[in-house]
Amino acid sequence: MKSIARSDGPNQEEIDRKKLELEEMEQELAEKELDLSTARRALHLFETRYQQIVGGKYAELDRLKASVLDMATRIHPESKDFHSQAEAAREKAEQSTHNWEVHQELPDTELPEPSEELKKMFRDAAKKIHPDLTTDPEERERRHALMARLNQAYESGDMEQVQAILNDWEINSDWEKLTPGKRLSRLLKQIGQVRHRFNQIHTELEQLKLSEMFRLKDFVEKSEKQGEDVLSAMVKDVEEKIRNLRTRVKNLAMDCAEL
Predict the structure, then answer these.
(1) Is 227 left (phi over 0), alpha (psi -120 to 50) or beta?
(2) Which CA distances in Å does 179 have to 12, 30, 151, 174, 187?
(3) For helices 12-50 and 212-225, what crossing angle results, to 10°?
(4) Separation of alpha carbons 162 and 86, rounded Å
(5) Which residue, 100, 168, 243, 254, could crosslink 55 as a Cys pair with Cβ 3.0–4.6 Å?
(6) What count of Cα atoms within 13 Å lies in the side-chain half-sphere of residue 213?
(7) What's the angle, vertex CA 56, arms to CA 55 and CA 59, rounded to 5?
(8) How does DSSP classify residue 113?
(9) For 218-228, what is each residue's pLDDT tens digit?
(10) Which pLDDT tens digit goes with each residue over 95-114?
């Protein structure tokens, strides 16, 4: 009777197959991270542009509304509706003013589009430092910090910073010290982490595209291609609302003076 050989662990062919699968996923992951970072950058630039052109006018209108409603609470202190509306208006005015002020301190929004060289550098760096390519908790945390730096450098178009991150990166792999079983276990865990990140990126992109600011960005860009200046039209509309509200308050004050 022939004895049946029993395998004590995975063979090299199985390890090589999973390693190749992971390498292909690494490339796809780098592309997806690039897509997400590019979308964030585009939204950030548009929001800065929007706030610098329109945000101040909306902040002014919100403050005016808050002042009118605050006056109403003093005239009708018993009205719970006026109190709640005035509180909501104050919060909205504070938030819109803050958003506008923050974006006034940001640099020029007319940054050049990322070059192909910068995109390639981003992909190369992402493939090396991505936190989902390690199973060690401490190393994962370190890589998260590096990815945050990488995304910030890419979004600002800072090629020197991206290159610096690549230059500073040191690979300290203990792959050769691992047994075949531990190698396969690490590969399977890394593949699982990358797949999980794929889902996260998909969700983040969908949430980004469904946001009010992103939808406004798309509408403005499509309108501009047709020769329409949507942001300037928004400014005129808000200015008209401010004038109308001020006029109504002034007329009310004049009526009171005649009583």
Answers:
(1) left
(2) 11, 28, 35, 11, 12
(3) 70
(4) 48
(5) 100
(6) 18
(7) 85
(8) P
(9) 999 999 999 99
(10) 999 989 888 776 554 556 78
